[in-house]
Amino acid sequence: MVPKKSPRIPLELHQIKAHEFYQKRLASGKEGNEIDDWQQAKEYLSQHPRAILAWNLKMPYRRGKRLIKRLLLSLQSLVRVAWKLLIFPFWLFQQIPGLFAREDKDSRTFAIDVVKTIISALGLIATLFAGIGLFVNYLNSQAEIQLTQQRLITERFSKAVEQIGNPKEEVVIGGIYSLERIAKDSPKDQWTIMEVLTSYIRKNSPIPSNIQQLKPAAREKALEKLPSVSIPVQAALTVIGRRKVENDQAGDNLAETNDPNKIKFLDLSGTNLRGAFLYRADLKGAILIEANLNGAFLYRADLKGANLIEANLNGDNLIEANLNGANLYRAILNGAILIGANLNGANLNGAYLIGAILDGAILNGAILNGANLNGAILNGARGLHPEQIKSACFWEKAIHTEAKWDEDKQLWVAEDWKANQREIEKLKRDKNSEPPNPIDCTTK
Questions:
Q1: Phi, psi for 203 (deg, rounded to 5)
Q2: How many C-beta neighbours within 10 Å does residue 73 have?
Q3: What distance in Å separates the CA atoms of residue 296 and residue 312, rounded to the nearest whole number?
Q4: pTM for the structure as a whole
Q5: Rounded to whole angstroms, what are the CA distances from 157 to 77, 143, 245, 272?
Q6: What is the pLDDT of residues 407-431, one digit of tens each?
Q7: With contact defined as beta carbons under 8 Å apart, do 378 and 398 qualify?
Q8: Which DSSP string do the residues of 381-410 spell out, in sequence order?
Q9: What is the pLDDT of residues 181-232, one digit of tens each?
C-alpha cells in the first residue's frame, strides 16, 4: 500500500506551533534553541494532519469574510446607480403603449427612440454586471496567487532550515543564502529568518563556559586563542548585517511597532565572532553581551544602542562605527581603532581601552568611570571633557598629544614626550575637574 502523502504545513501555523514549544521549553527550564522548536513543531504537525486541515478550513473563511467586507463597500455606490438604471427603463417601458397609440408621427418616432434607449440601458447594465464579475474573478485569482506563493515560501523555508542542519558546509551555506532570498521575497517572514540565523550562530559558535568564568585578564588571553568564525557562521553574519532592517517590524509578530516591549533585537550574546567581517553591518540594539569580537572588522558598522557588556573588542577596527548610546560596561577594547567612531552617550564604565585609538572619536556624554586609559590615544577626541578623563583610571598614562608607533616597544607613544607631560600636568592642576568620588583603580 502506498503511504499517504503528508499535507503541506502552512508557514503561519508552523510559526505559531514552534512558538508554543518555545514557551513550554522556557516554562520547564529546558535547554534548546529555535531550530529544535521549529523541527519539533514540524514533527507534531506531520503527525496531526487534522490540525492542518482545521487551519486551512478556517483561513479561507477569514479571508472570504474580509473580501466580502471590501466588496460591500466598493459595490455600495454601484448598486445605487444600478438600481436607478433598472427603474428608469421600466418607467419608460410603461410609457410606450401610450406613445404608439397616438396617431401623430412625432409620438411614434419618440416611442421608437424610447425603445432604443431601453435597449441601450439594458446593455449598459449587462456590461456593468459583467465588469463586476470580472472584478470578482480578479480578486479570486489574486487570492489564489497569494496562497500559491505562500505555499511555495513555506516549502522553500522548510527546505532551507533542513539544509542549515546538514553536516556538509557547502549545503549549510546554500541554506543560509536561501533564507536570505526568502526574507527578500516575503518581508513578513524576515524576523523569523533572523531568529533562525542568530540561533544557528549561537549554537555553532559559542564561547566555552569555562572561559566565561575566568577573570578579565585570563579571559582576554583565552578568547584570543579561540578560532576565527567559520565560513557558514560568517555567511549568516553577512546576511544579518545587510538585511533590510525595516522589514524586521513587518509581519504579525511585530505589528505593534510603537510598543518598545514588542520590538525585538538580534541576540548574539556569548558567541565567538573572532575576526568576523562586519563592514557596514546594521546591528542596532543587538545583544552582544560577553561576545568575542576580537579582531573583528566593524568599519562603519551601526552598533547604536547595542548591548556590549563585557564584550571583547580587542584590536577591532571600529573606524567611523556608530556606538551612540551603546552599553560597553567592562568591555575590552584594548588596541581597538576608534577613529571617528560615534560614542555619544556610550557607557564605557569599567571598559578596557588600553592602547585604543580615539583620535576623532565623538565622546559627548560618554561615561568613562573606571575605564582603563593606559596608553590610549586621546588626542583629537571630540566632546571629551577633563571631568570625563579624570573619572577614568590611568589617564596619566594616556597619550594626550600627537602619537607615533614605536617599533622597538611595539606600541604607540607620545611623539613629543615633554608636550604630553605638560598636558597631563595641566589636567592635574585643574581642581574643578576632580571627580567627587575617586575611583579605586588598584584592581585594574
A1: -75, -40
A2: 9
A3: 10
A4: 0.68
A5: 43, 21, 20, 27
A6: 888 889 999 999 999 999 999 999 8
A7: yes
A8: -BS--HHHHHTSBSGGGSB-S-EEEETTTT
A9: 999 998 989 999 999 999 999 999 999 988 878 887 888 889 989 999 999 9
